[in-house]
Amino acid sequence: MIGMAGKKRAAVLPLAVAGLVLSLFPVVYLHVASVGELSPITHTISDYIFVDNGSGLLAVTALSLAAASVGLLAALVRSGLPRRGPVAVLMGLWSAGLAVAAVFPTDPTGAPTSFSGAVHRYAGAVMFASLPLAGWLISRTFISSTAVRRFSVAAGITSVAFMLSHASVVYPGSGAVVLGLFERVLFALLYGLLFALAAAVLRRGVSS
Predict the structure, then answer these.
(1) Fewer Cβ atoms within 10 A, N terminus or C terminus of the chain?
(2) Residues 5, 16: Cα–Cα separation, whole Å
(3) Where are the domains of the chain?
(4) Transmembrane residues, as ranges (predicted)?
(5) CA angle at 163 for the pair 193 and 189, rounded to the nearest 5°
């Protein structure tokens, strides 16, 4: 028989997964609609705010992803994850970083860094560091999941590569501009990590 905690977990987990799926539609649409206008190799996803309807659609993606992540954290907590442990803090930072990055847009490529652009940049650094570390801690201390661990490690490595790829923008002529490519690979891995976490929570609920 499923207890009250199990029922609450079963209720929140589908909502979290639905939020993850919903968050994909606007950003995928922007990739398709902006073909020939922005390069997925050199431009970051944040640059889609400069295309038609890009600001609103990116906000839907970021806020849906943030809400889904909070829902996933709630499901983890109801599965036994400590409410005030480091994982909760890291996933909170990931979700907050998404929301802050949506509120403070990036600057156009080549433009001087504004206050909004600086906040956006630091929010991105925090969130890209937080989620891979949270996933790795979960796989080590809470749920033994090979998929979660592998996605976490791959996302962590790609996050570092993405940060380093900014050198080609900060120091023009220092190399090919490929930060857009690294960011898209990173987001694909982060989505994979979140879906792997959802699957791990579901398996934990079934076995408990």
Answers:
(1) N
(2) 16
(3) 4-207
(4) 54-75, 87-106, 118-139, 151-173, 185-202
(5) 15
Q: pLDDT, tens digit, for every residue of 38-73?
A: 999 989 999 999 998 999 999 999 999 999 999 999
Locate tokens 């501009």: which residue? 177
DSSP state at residue 176 = -
E runs forming strands in the chain: none
Residues 81-113: b if buried by 16+ CB within 10 A, e if exposed: beeeeebbebbebbbbbbbbbbebbbbeeeeee
- The 8 Å CB, 24+ separation contacts for 157-166 are 158/182, 158/185, 158/186, 158/189, 159/128, 159/129, 159/132, 159/186, 162/128, 162/186, 163/125, 163/128
What is this structure's pTM?
0.90
